[in-house]
Amino acid sequence: MPRRNRPHRDRPGAAESGAVAGWARAESASDGEWLVRTVPGAQATKFYRCPGCDHEIRPGVPHLVVWPADETGSVADRRHWHRACWEARSRRRPTRRH
User: Fold this and answer.
1) Greater model confidence, 19 or 45
2) CA-CA distance, 37 to 52, in Å (whole number)?
3) Where is this region: Disordered (predicted)?
4) Which of 60, 61, 94, 58 is nearest to 79 (CA)?
């Protein structure tokens, strides 16, 4: 009999394992409280501009979506960051396009 590689839906935790990337986690730092969501490369379908380095985030590139925790779901406050840029934000301030 062939092996089934699909997750078992009846097993505890099986459904959550694939959906972890869609959930936001809270982060606290000296620059405030943030909600951070991981976007896997397979779900990255658009071009974005990282505020940390001012370079493009191309489709297919895994990255983070970050927004202030005090803003309740405001899409306008969400920013797409390279993971390394987000982690280095305390050492390097976001660049501004002119």
Assistant:
1) 45
2) 16
3) 1-24
4) 94
Range of the domain at 44: 24-87
In a domain, 95, yes or no: no
pLDDT band at 8 (very low <50, low <70, confident <90, very high): very low
Residue 29 placed within a domain: yes
Q: Is 18 among the domain residues? A: no
The number of folded domains in the chain is 1
Q: What are the residue ranges of helices labelled H in the chain?
A: 14-19, 83-87
* Predicted confidence (pLDDT) at residue 14 exceeds the cutoff of 50: no
Residue 5 lies in a domain: no
* 3-class secondary-structure state, position 98: coil
Kindly report the pTM of this predicted structure. Answer: 0.68
